[in-house]
Amino acid sequence: MTSALATPVDRPARTRRPVVGTSTLTRGSGLALGIAMTWFSLLVLIPLAAIVATTAAGGWEQFWRIVTNDQTLAALRLTVGSALGVTALNVFMGTAIAWVLVRDRFWGKRILDVAIDIPFALPTIVAGLVLLALYGKGSPLGLEWANTEMSVRLALAFVTLPFIVRTVQPVLEELEHDVEEAAASLGAGRMTIFRRIILPSLVPAIAAGAALSFARAISEYGSLVLLSGNLPFKTEVVSVRVLSFIEGGNTAAAAALATVMLIVALVVIVAVDVISRRVARRG
Amino acid sequence: MSIDITGVNKLFGDFVALEDVNVSIPTGQLTALLGPSGGGKSTLLRIIAGLDTADTGTISIEGTDATKLPPQKRNVGFVFQHYAVFKHMTVAKNVAFGLEIRKKSKKEIAHRVDELLKLVHLSQFAHRLPSQLSGGQRQRMALARALAVEPTVLLLDEPFGALDAKVRKELREWLRRLHDEVNVTTVFVTHDQEEALEVADEIVVINDGRVEQIGSPDELYDEPANDFVMGFLGEVTSLNGNLIRPHDVDVTTAPTLAGAVQGEISRMLRIGFEVRVTVLTDDGQEVQVTMTRTHARALGLEEGQHVWLTAATGATTVPTMAAV
């Protein structure tokens, strides 16, 4: 490419140079892209396409009948509603925990810092057991939430706790302290500094964490099966519903519901991205 | 006096950052706090701004006691070495920040921002983000932001420290002109003696947490209070137990003056118009002498030659405290 200047004008090779959408790929990066795309296709794109294809094969009417089934709708409502609620809660709690971990000094901080990851690292069924022991029948806390909608929210909140903490924490650590000092010397109080200087820098991280948290919440299974009791119309979530479809041999219904969840996940992740761009630009 | 610093002490753990500092900074002037890194000058500046607090002592700004005031209430403009830009705001928004905090009208803010961006030559960049500016431009933006609130004093902490040599030189000349234009009492921290000598009306030399000397650039250069100030403001060499500037040493090729130190030229290094001569005296000391190429040629100096050294008439000398 560097020899382009020395190339005679009438060399035929020049006509092969793409004019629109010039690619910057070299042979090495082309190979890397190829490997990455093959791997991504095998793992993600082909299985997802297969689900959509299975759904499509059943036709629109069948899809609509499965999705608008009352029990399915109840499961969808519970799952998406709880996931949204828990994610909103995490936005506040996760940011607050990250703030405390970065800005404050207290005894046991290192331990807390490590312990944050436990809900994430724990096998989900173990998490379910822990929750059952605390909130099940004869709860030592006096909170018998087993087999109620609260149990679903609790389990989701438990497993999604680390996401926003872990995305916000490094960004908060990287924030330059002199920026806040500059704002202070210009007359901004602590609340104004947080709202106009710190928050806009955190928003992309909060959004990334929220997307992860939501994605994890709508797909959660292990931690809530024990505690929620999987009661149709009450505590049955989508993943449980999909499993019972499959166990009943109704693959088409399972695929249809999976497709719906695929769309929900896409919509929410795109929405989170759009919101974070908007907020980060304002300031 | 615009800023009065009285009896300020500051410890970080058991490190003495400032020790009984008393300085008065005159109104409307450009004052440099000069000293080596870690000497306490930045700490002093931050204490003036309220970003750090003194353990003991008082700060008064324009006659009001500011010792206990938070930074928000001191009405000082502060410019940081690493610009401290608000990354997510445009250049105009950055400059407008202090005015928005003060709840000025939209029209007034727009007018003032416009004016300031003109002052710092960034009008055409008003709608860019700071990341799209060069280091020098960012620092000019930071300066406009600090000036926007019409501060009583403008404090700059190594403002050109993160810039390359050429931009640094341009900006300090520009700062001098800007100061003559806006005339706000300005204090800047630097470890570069050339910068201080070129830009400042008054220089406060700070070392090891103590004020070594306060004076105009000429006073400091011509009448340094001690060997530290002498050594920090320019090159020094030692002749006959005195510190002296290398260009203030006269060289003769014959013993014409009484008290001249005899020695032998051990090394000559020519850099452009300048010749650096190292003379090894008979009592075993090395003396550095600089002179113009023309002068060296007129004397016919060469390595191994015997020469006699004396202090030039009117040369500044300071007794050596410790061996240099």
Q: What does this protein structure show overall?
A:
The complex is a heterodimer of chains A (283) and B (324). Chain A has 283 residues and is an all-alpha fold. Chain A folds into 2 domains: 26-57, no CATH class; 59-281, Orthogonal Bundle (MetI-like fold), CATH 1.10.3720. Chain A is built from 12 helices and no strands. In chain A, α3 (70-103) packs across α9, α6 (124-135) runs parallel beside α10 (222-228) and α8 crosses α9. In chain B, α2 (91-101) crosses α3, α2 (91-101) packs parallel to α4 and α3 packs across α4. Chain B has 9 helices and 18 strands. Chain B has 2 domains: 3-228, P-loop containing nucleotide triphosphate hydrolases (Rossmann fold, 3-Layer(aba) Sandwich); 235-319, RNA polymerase II/Efflux pump adaptor protein, barrel-sandwich hybrid domain (OB fold (Dihydrolipoamide Acetyltransferase, E2P), Beta Barrel). The model of chain B has no long low-confidence stretch (mean pLDDT 91). With 324 residues, chain B is an alpha+beta fold. At the A-B interface, α8 and α9 of A face β6, α2 and α4 of B. Chain B: GO terms for molecular function: ABC-type quaternary ammonium compound transporting activity; ABC-type sulfate transporter activity; ATP binding; ATP hydrolysis activity. Chain B: Its EC number is 7.6.2.9.
